[in-house]
Structure formats: C-alpha cells, structure tokens
C-alpha cells in the first residue's frame, strides 16, 4: 500500500504473468476503477507480476508436481508481506484453504464455465474422427472425454493457453481442450470450435470465475471488493469449493463440480442450489456422478462429496495421489 501526494491510496494488484492472467487482471482493475469512481473512493491501481511454482515447472505433468495451490502460494505470500494488496486468481487454481489472514474479498460474476474444443476441423465433439488425438493435461477432462469417446487418444499438453493453441498445429493434435472462459477473456471466442455441454464435461471447481483475494485486516480494500462481489456466483462457488474441500482435492485430480442457483433468495431457507459433482479415473472407465439440491452451499458440497465417497471416490483419489 502506498499513499500518493494527494492522499489517495494506490492499491497494488498482484497477478501471474501469463497472457491470460495479465489480461484478466487488467479487466479486473478497469472494473475496480469504475467502482471506485462511482463511489467517490478515488483509488488508483498498480499491477505487480509474480512468478509462481506452477509457472516455473512447465515440463512435468501438473498431477505429478504435487502440492496444492501451485499457482497461488507466492502470490499469497506477497499479500501477507504487504507487497501487494489484492491478488487476482482463477478460482480454479485456488486451493481450498487460503492462507491464514487472507480471504476472497470478491467473487465477480462468472463467465461461461464450460470446457471447449479448439479443433483442426469440425464443429462438435462428434466431428472428431475415430482415434483422434486430443491434447489436455487435465485428468478431469481426460476422464470425461474418454468416458463418452473411449476411442480418443488423450495426450498431455501443458503451457499457457496461447502456447497450447499453437501446439494444436505444431504437435499434430486434432483438438485441444480449454476453458471457454479463458478464450472469452482473451477475446478469442472465434477460435472455439465447440463448447462441451456441462452434462458431458462437468467443469473444474470454480471454472470461469475469478477470486479476488485480500487481507482480512484491510477494511478499505474489503469494502471496495464487496462492491464487486456477485452474490449468485459467490454462492455457487462456495458450494463447489466445499465439495473440493470435502474430497481434499487440488486442481490436479479428476474432480469436477458445477453448481447453479435454481432459486435466489435472501432468506437462506428459500434459496435453492443444485450441485453436480464427478470423480473418475483418467482413462474414463469409471465416472461417478452425483447431483443434489440444497439451500446451504457448504452443506451441499459436503453432501455431494459424501455421496461420491460412498460410491468409491475416496479410493479413486487415493490411487491417483499415490
Ligand atoms: N489451470 C489453468 C487454468 N486456470 C484457469 C483457466 C481458465 C480460466 C478459468 O477457468 O477461469 C485455465 C486454463 C484452462 O483450463 O484452459
């Protein structure tokens, strides 16, 4: 935190330095500026780029690197050290437990949560020829794609979304799978060949949503961020993350969860959420799916997790984590 000559606080915003991270952080800052002006708060903003472990280790399957919060840890440390005041993350990359003293000050409105295909040719999953080579290093995507299309050859592809799209050409894939949200934020919607419905590929926990993290003991920033929070998105993300916490998962294991608000209400008893969760094996031979409705997001997440565990989810996850 710094104070400029005219007494206005400059809020330092930390981010990873991938093209997607920088683009979405720029978009967040624009929105925070607008909110700050509208409410006469007069803040200015500054970007600080931070390299994370997940960015440095690019040649290893993420599921093999181990540890949770690979893309988050260094950024959280910078928050705790006061080097930055706000951190912008993809919720998908956030571990269930944030560092002590930190919190999600805002979950802004979610964009499209679905996975999508970037294809060499064609415009739907069905257009992929028998035995087509599909690039993804997400065990969740691999599980669900192989489940509906056992013939597909799923191969690992890592790197930032721009380099993954390039690998479609350079490494001879027929398709690669990405998050629609990332493509939208980059302004690359026209490169999307097909979006995959959520009943075919249940998205990753929090996919398409951003988490704006801050220090618990920073009332001014918390007040600003509360004005940026989207109530519905917050509720569904709480439900999805509760499932993640209950299954003790990071972003590198085949867990998916997708929640929607069926009935919005300020009266928590009248609120109705629906949460679908999946756990499976990377080869798609096992795919457990459970859907429940409820009014308490945390309880709903635990309930869907329990239903999955009752069917053997724990065993699958233990095997994968080795
Ligand atoms: N693990 C990488 C990651 N983290 C968040 C997104 C996409 C944007 C989002 O879900 O908010 C991506 C890229 C991808 O999966 O294609």
Automatic annotation (TrEMBL):
<dbReference type="GO" id="GO:0006782">
    <property type="term" value="P:protoporphyrinogen IX biosynthetic process"/>
</dbReference>
<dbReference type="InterPro" id="IPR000860">
    <property type="entry name" value="HemC"/>
</dbReference>
<dbReference type="GO" id="GO:0004418">
    <property type="term" value="F:hydroxymethylbilane synthase activity"/>
</dbReference>
<dbReference type="InterPro" id="IPR022418">
    <property type="entry name" value="Porphobilinogen_deaminase_C"/>
</dbReference>
<feature type="domain" description="Porphobilinogen deaminase N-terminal">
    <location>
        <begin position="11"/>
        <end position="222"/>
    </location>
</feature>
<comment type="similarity">
    <text>Belongs to the HMBS family.</text>
</comment>
<dbReference type="InterPro" id="IPR022419">
    <property type="entry name" value="Porphobilin_deaminase_cofac_BS"/>
</dbReference>
<feature type="domain" description="Porphobilinogen deaminase C-terminal">
    <location>
        <begin position="236"/>
        <end position="308"/>
    </location>
</feature>
<dbReference type="InterPro" id="IPR022417">
    <property type="entry name" value="Porphobilin_deaminase_N"/>
</dbReference>
<keyword id="KW-0627">Porphyrin biosynthesis</keyword>
<dbReference type="Pfam" id="PF01379">
    <property type="entry name" value="Porphobil_deam"/>
</dbReference>
<feature type="modified residue" description="S-(dipyrrolylmethanemethyl)cysteine">
    <location>
        <position position="251"/>
    </location>
</feature>
<comment type="function">
    <text>Tetrapolymerization of the monopyrrole PBG into the hydroxymethylbilane pre-uroporphyrinogen in several discrete steps.</text>
</comment>
<comment type="pathway">
    <text>Porphyrin-containing compound metabolism; protoporphyrin-IX biosynthesis; coproporphyrinogen-III from 5-aminolevulinate: step 2/4.</text>
</comment>
<keyword id="KW-0808">Transferase</keyword>
<dbReference type="InterPro" id="IPR036803">
    <property type="entry name" value="Porphobilinogen_deaminase_C_sf"/>
</dbReference>
<dbReference type="Pfam" id="PF03900">
    <property type="entry name" value="Porphobil_deamC"/>
</dbReference>
<protein>
    <recommendedName>
        <fullName>Porphobilinogen deaminase</fullName>
        <ecNumber>2.5.1.61</ecNumber>
    </recommendedName>
</protein>
<comment type="subunit">
    <text>Monomer.</text>
</comment>
<dbReference type="GO" id="GO:0005737">
    <property type="term" value="C:cytoplasm"/>
</dbReference>
């Amino acid at each position: 935190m710094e104070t400029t000559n005219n007494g206005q606080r400059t809020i330092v915003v930390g981010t990873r330095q991938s093209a997607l991270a920088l683009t979405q952080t720029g978009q967040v800052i624009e929105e925070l500026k607008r909110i700050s002006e509208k409410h006469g708060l007069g803040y200015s903003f500054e970007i600080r780029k931070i390299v994370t472990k997940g960015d440095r280790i690019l040649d290893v399957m993420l599921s093999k690197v181990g540890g949770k919060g690979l893309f988050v840890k260094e950024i959280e440390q910078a928050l705790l050290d006061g080097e930055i005041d706000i951190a912008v993350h993809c919720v998908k990359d956030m571990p269930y437990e944030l560092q002590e003293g930190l919190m999600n000050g805002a979950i802004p409105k979610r964009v499209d949560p679905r996975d999508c295909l970037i294809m060499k040719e064609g415009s739907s999953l069905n257009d992929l020829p028998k035995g087509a080579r599909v690039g993804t290093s997400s065990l969740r995507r691999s599980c669900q794609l192989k489940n509906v299309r056992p013939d597909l050859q799923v191969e690992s592809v890592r790197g930032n979304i721009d380099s993954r799209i390039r690998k479609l050409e350079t490494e001879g894939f027929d398709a690669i799978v990405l998050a629609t949200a990332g493509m939208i934020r980059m302004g690359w919607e026209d490169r999307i060949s097909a979006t995959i419905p959520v009943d075919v590929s249940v998205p990753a926990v929090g996919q398409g949503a951003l988490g704006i993290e801050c220090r618990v003991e920073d009332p001014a920033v918390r007040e600003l961020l509360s004005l940026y929070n989207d109530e519905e998105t917050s509720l569904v993300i709480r439900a999805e993350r509760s499932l993640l916490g209950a299954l003790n998962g990071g972003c590198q294991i085949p867990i998916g969860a997708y929640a929607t608000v069926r009935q919005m209400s300020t009266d928590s008893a009248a609120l109705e959420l629906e949460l679908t969760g999946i756990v499976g094996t990377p080869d798609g031979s096992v795919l457990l799916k459970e859907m429940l409705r409820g009014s308490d997001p945390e309880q709903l997440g635990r309930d869907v997790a329990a239903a999955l565990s009752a069917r053997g989810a724990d065993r699958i996850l233990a095997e994968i984590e080795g």
